[in-house]
């Protein structure tokens, strides 16, 4: 007798841990109307959770009427082969769900330019992350993912967040998981997201059981195969970089595949594994990562004053930031892949212009490498916020808000970019006109002595 191809076929010999998890998911799905959010990283544990949830939807058929949101974090600096794999998985998942009328909504979450790795490292001058200053996790993963989930909570009133965390992963992880307070259904409240409950459906699975499932349930119901993911683990010789949703979730480090720019670890074992397994084209990426790690220790690359005005190694200085941007764009040419987005370069220019640059150096450097990038445009919501701040602060400094507003519009609308020395002079002339007009108006309204 041949095994049916139906993805929800259940052999009588299905292991107890798998049957228990399927029953848990079935009961929790029917327990209330809260939509589910599946945190998906493309790694083994989150793939297992996603596949079990998807099997449940196929089993329920037309009864599957509660939305499932799949949230995947793309930091924009994932290892390129991992990024391509994640994009392919999400595309297949979305297409299959749509074709089969399943209530699955896929969110590929990316940091904004101000949250991005290059926006902070090159734009603001943050030194490359260390084990003690791991600024990347909160900016690139927590904030973007949390923003999407917060939006789902606002729309639906609450969610159940499904994570692939397991007790078997480490003793410290087990201790944290067991110490969390749970409700009568075994769900615990999320510490960072109000109205979100957390379910860990594979908490009791061992690593061997995870691998066994993925090997024996391949391909997944949405198409493609797990082969590339399984091969990634063999190449990387390690674990996965999770979707991080709070600061208590261990970030990447040690054996993992994740950001190719990661300088938290001493040696990027996953990248070395990829290269030794045949991806020699990634060697320049690894060399650039090693260089980023080395230069943060060079005093000549850092300001001598920290952001809190204390003496000591501060941000990368202006020349260091220009050098990093130039070498990054050179690296793009070498590997033949886009490594930094236009919006990030525009954001970098804005940061430089605010602090030290009056010649649009970032845009000029990009132009050297054939990248024509326009100046960062002010978004309407930013404009509303800025104008509200002007109205609030102007009285404190005894300034008419109308004149401060005129200067604001002058800079953001008439001179969003200062590409030439002539535009600098024109801006200065126009600023003088606004100030002189403000003085004249003040003189006219000043009461006579």
From TrEMBL:
One Pfam family hit: PAPS_reduct
Record InterPro entries: PAPS_reduct_dom, Rossmann-like_a/b/a_fold, Sulfate_adenylyltrnsfr_sub2, SulphurTrfase_DndC
Phosphoadenosine phosphosulphate reductase domain mapped to chain residues: 37-221
Keyword annotations: Transferase
Gene3D superfamilies, sorted: HUPs (3.40.50.620)
tRNA processing among keywords: no
Superkingdom: Bacteria
GO molecular function, a single term: transferase activity
Full protein name: Putative sulfurtransferase DndC
Lineage, uppermost ranks: Bacteria, Pseudomonadati, Pseudomonadota, Gammaproteobacteria, Chromatiales
């Amino acid at each position: 007798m041949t095994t049916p191809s139906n993805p929800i076929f259940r052999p009588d010999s299905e292991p107890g841990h798998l049957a228990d998890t399927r029953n848990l998911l079935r009961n929790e799905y029917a327990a209330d109307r809260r939509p589910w959010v599946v945190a998906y990283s493309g790694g083994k544990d989150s793939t297992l959770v996603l596949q079990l949830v998807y099997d449940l939807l196929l089993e329920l058929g037309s009864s599957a009427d509660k939305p499932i949101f799949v949230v995947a974090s793309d930091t924009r600096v994932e290892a390129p082969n991992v990024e391509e794999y994640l994009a392919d998985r999400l595309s297949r998942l979305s297409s299959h769900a749509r074709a089969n009328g399943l209530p699955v909504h896929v969110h590929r979450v990316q940091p904004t330019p101000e949250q991005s790795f290059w926006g902070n490292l090159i734009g603001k001058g943050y030194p490359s992350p260390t084990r003690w200053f791991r600024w990347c996790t909160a900016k690139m993963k927590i904030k973007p993912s949390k923003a999407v989930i917060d939006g789902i909570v606002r729309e639906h009133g609450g969610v159940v967040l499904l994570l692939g965390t397991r007790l078997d992963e480490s003793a410290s992880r087990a201790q944290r998981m067991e110490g969390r307070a749970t409700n009568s259904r075994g769900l615990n409240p999320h510490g960072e997201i109000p109205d979100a409950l957390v379910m860990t459906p594979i908490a009791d699975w061992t690593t061997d059981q995870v691998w066994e499932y993925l090997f024996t349930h391949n391909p997944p119901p949405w198409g493609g195969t797990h082969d590339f993911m399984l091969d990634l683990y063999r190449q990387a010789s390690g674990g996965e970089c999770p979707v991080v949703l709070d600061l208590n979730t261990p970030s990447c480090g040690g054996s993992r595949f994740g950001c190719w720019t990661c300088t938290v670890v001493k040696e990027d074992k996953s990248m070395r594994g990829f290269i030794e397994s045949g991806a020699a084209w990634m060697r320049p990426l690894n060399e650039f990562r090693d260089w980023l790690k080395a230069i943060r220790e060079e005093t000549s690359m850092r300001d001598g004053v920290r952001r809190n005005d204390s003496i000591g190694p501060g941000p990368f200085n202006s020349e260091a930031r220009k050098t990093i941007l130039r070498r990054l764009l050179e690296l793009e040419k070498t590997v033949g892949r886009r490594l930094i987005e236009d919006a990030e370069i525009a954001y970098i220019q804005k940061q430089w212009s605010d602090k030290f640059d009056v010649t649009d150096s970032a845009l000029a450097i990009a132009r050297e490498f054939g990248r024509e990038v326009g100046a960062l445009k002010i978004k309407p919501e930013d404009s509303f916020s800025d104008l509200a701040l002007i109205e609030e602060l102007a009285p404190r400094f005894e300034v008419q808000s109308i004149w401060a507003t005129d200067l604001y519009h002058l800079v953001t609308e008439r001179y969003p970019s200062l590409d030439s020395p002539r535009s600098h002079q024109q801006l200065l002339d126009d600023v003088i006109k606004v100030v002189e007009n403000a003085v004249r108006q003040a003189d006219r309204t000043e009461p006579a002595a």
